[in-house]
Amino acid sequence: MKENESPKLIAIVEDDPDVARIIEQSLADFGFRTTWCRNGGDLLRKLRTMAPDLCIIDLGLPDMDGIEAMQRVKAQSACGLLILTGRTHVSDRVMGLELGADDYVLKPFEPRELVARVRSILRRRESTSSTGSKQLAEFSGWRFNMGNNTLSSPKGDETVLSTSEAELLKVFVTHPNRILQREQLMGTRDLSPTDRSIDVRISRLRRKLEPDEQSQAFIKTVYGAGYLFMATVNWKKSAKPE
Fold first, then answer.
1. What is the CATH number of domain 9-130?
2. According to the model, what pLDDT value does residue 191 have?
3. Selected residue with higher pLDDT from 72 and 147
4. Residue 132: pLDDT above 60?
5. What pLDDT, on a 0 to 100 scale, did the predictor assign at position 189?
6. Is pLDDT above 70 for 87?
7. What secondary structure, in 3-state letters, does the chain show?
8. Whole-angstrom Cα distance, residue 229 to residue 175?
9. In what order do the strands lie in the sheet with 150-152?
10. What is the CATH number of domain 134-236?
11. What is the pLDDT of residue 29?
12. Which of 59, 72, 116, 228 has the fewest CB atoms within 10 Å of its CB?
């Protein structure tokens, strides 16, 4: 923890008091504040007045499925999400990650591993939030200047993106190699299933980035889940636009 920085608050959503106590003690040993929620409803009530930095959510909650609890948390909080589960089915973990969880830990778990994953999530989120001071994203020879919405190809050709195209690319470059739901890309939680505006934006952006739109070299459609931006992104500071 940095000097003068307040301890991070971790919400633990676990109906087993013994497991919750182990997690609380492990996190406290590393300087974290914690709050224990016995079920999903307890967490949702606390979120009205509490802003945790991360929630650890057990998938086997007594009042609602952990996946549902995670989705409801994401609808009202920007905190990180760590899935805790004793379920052995890979599909449960994959679904959680596809719906926005940052990571997962299997039960029984090693307390030090859980703490390490919590710290890793928080570091990644802080790194992502710091990109506000970084104006230039580089990936596979392309350069995207977030200050003036200019996209430069590997050949040096420049294109000024529309506002909607630029906002979409900003989301992709700040969340590379991660499946993003249509709602996340649109910046809204109230997107109708029949609203295809995001698909139109994706198509327009693909035409700018990919010679063959069907190749999905950068923007991959993950059917039933969302879209994935497949690129390694490097950040640099650029001169401020005039």
1. 3.40.50.2300
2. 44
3. 72
4. no
5. 41
6. yes
7. CCCCCCCCEEEEECCCHHHHHHHHHHHHHCCCEEEEECCHHHHHHHCCCCCCCEEEEECECCCCEHHHHHHHHHHHCCCEEEEEECCCCHHHHHHHHHCCCCEEEECCCCHHHHHHHHHHHHHHHHHHHHHHHCCEEEECCEEEECCCCEEECCCCCEEECCHHHHHHHHHHHHCCCCEECHHHHHCCCCCCCCCCHHHHHHHHHHHHHCCCHHHCCCEEEECCCEEEECCCCEEECCCCCC
8. 8
9. 158-160, 150-152, 142-145, 136-139, 234-236
10. 1.10.10.10
11. 96
12. 116
Q: Can you read off the two tokens belonging to residue 193?
A: 């299933």
pLDDT at 154: 92
Q: Tell me if domain 9-130 and domain 134-236 are identical in fold.
A: no
Average pLDDT on 111-131 reads 79
**CA distances for 87 relative to 63, 83, 84, 108, 155, angstroms:** 17, 11, 9, 10, 49
Sketch the domain layout of the chain as residue ranges: 9-130, 134-236
Side chain identity, residue 141:
G
How far is residue 59's CA from residue 75's CA, in Å, rounded to a whole number?
17
